[in-house]
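Q: For a teaching session next week I want to show students how multiple molecules come together into a single three-dimensional assembly. I've collected the sequence lines for a complex. Could you give me the predicted structure tokens for the whole thing so I can convert them for display?
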Amino acid sequence: MLTAFAIFADGLVYAAYLFIVAIGLTLIFGVMKILNVTHGSFYAFGAYGAATAVGIYANAGWPAALGFLFMLAFGMAIGLVMGVILERGLLRLVYGRDEVIVVLVTYATFLILEDVIVLIWGAQSYAAYQPMVAAGNIEIGDLILSNYDLVLVALAAGLAALAYWALKYTRYGRLLTTVIFDRETAAAFGINVTVVYTATFILGAMLGALGGAVMAPKISVTLGIGVEVIVLAFAVVAIGGMGSIEGALVGALIVGICRAAAVHLVPQIELFVIYGVMALVLVVRPYGLFVRARPRKI
Amino acid sequence: MAARGHLVGALMFLIAAAVGPALPDWAVSLAAIAFANALVVLGLVVMWRAGLVSFGQALYYCIGAYAVALIARWTGFTDAVALVAIGGVGAGIVAALVGFLLARYREIFFAMLSLALSMILYGVLVKTESLGSTDGFSVATPTFFGLSLHGDKLILALYWLTLGIDAIAAAAVGYYFRSIAGALAAPIRDNEIRVEFLGVSVTGIVHGKVVIAGTLGGLGGALAALTIGHVDPAMAYWTTSGGFVFVTILAGAGSVAAAFVGSLLFEAARSIAVDVMPGLWQMLLGAVLLLTILFLPEGLGSLAARVGKRGEVKR
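A: Of course. Below is the structure for the complete assembly, covering every listed component.
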């Protein structure tokens, strides 16, 4: 029983992390039809930025809660800057090219940014554990959970609710939905698709960086963290259906629980299980769980 | 035209083989690895012509490499030619099975699913302690029809073996491009549904391409494993696939020869760059890829073609 609860708790925490990372990716794909490999760089820059921010506030001796918010804000600010530069400076030039070509453009950008990280932060790893320690632990039954993990779950749930509300009940969200359904028709009805693209990409970049920022205290911020995240987020998004927010949520939960179960029951298959689940889902639902049927265009 | 192409191609391979003994060891083994990887690139070119990009070609590369290494380790069988053949066939069989799933997908989804499949293999290998986990293990020294060679002779023999297999593969792929299935690649890329209306099974053709590319990937992996003398799970990691895709885009899908030239240039550039500016290799890679996509959409191969066509009347 304890194992079952531990699997559930770990799975939920992991799912929260996956969802925060995947939501930006799926948003960008849904609106722009771009599979954004650079998302891994946003994550890495967010994490490095958060580590720097933690260093700043730990030295200044600010209270922990303020430090946590400062960390998130710092990470997201980096995402904002990167998003603007990339979308306006580069992606704008390749709109309308083959989807696969655009993937390669983001892949090239990712490669460049990997070395930019070394140039800015050097090759050493950073620890940013202070917020995690400051949050303390909580005992539920026999299980000790970190409060920080609970904050993570709350944050993911908040993001999901916010995304749902924004898409359904705000003006910008309605416009976005229109663009997701059909870009050309939306443009014909007078929606400024260029602005929507730019805004979406910046938002996605900020979400990616946010993912890195909240994870920084839990991991060792080191070279190569972006690489792992990309494939993980891809798997989550592919399971849920590319471009679907609720899909990303369900995908994150499925992958999170499955991985936690594997870690507790058969640790050998931990890595395998994620992609195994993905392949299995895709065999049954070739384009993911939450994807609308599309008409064939001749 | 085709006959002339064959002649030029054969001549190129003969020249490459002939200069082998004159080159230093490091250059020969570099060229051997480059030409082994060129097979994987050739496979990607076959798919790229139909607009398909696989971000998981490392799956077959790794299967070929591990097949060679494991057979040599478990049975003590070390004949290079047979091992490479087994590596290719093994990867081809896996590709044929995987193809039933993959051939249903296009574009991003094709790329993603192949990526996931290669990551499954990576995950399994990393967790298999008996195969050295992330460290991998060494490959036994190969023999050639009972002859055991050492040092520079071994490297040279592997180089020639690689060139021989490359020549066969190049001729076979050239033949495939001129066949009906090969010629339908561009129409599939442009408008798949219309090809279906012609009464052709696009899924079948894509499946065929997956098998061809998989077999080539396996051959390349097998040769690379013998030349490097070591296999590890990183061979299945998605960044390995990314490297192959990189060379494919750089070389362009215009011709068979581009795969070989591109791969050689890539390996040479990598060894120079790692030497001269170790920290900036990935940045250089990314910048070159970006510039290629932005300014040379058909790849470096089109540059040669453009220069050659300058005298002719424009269409």
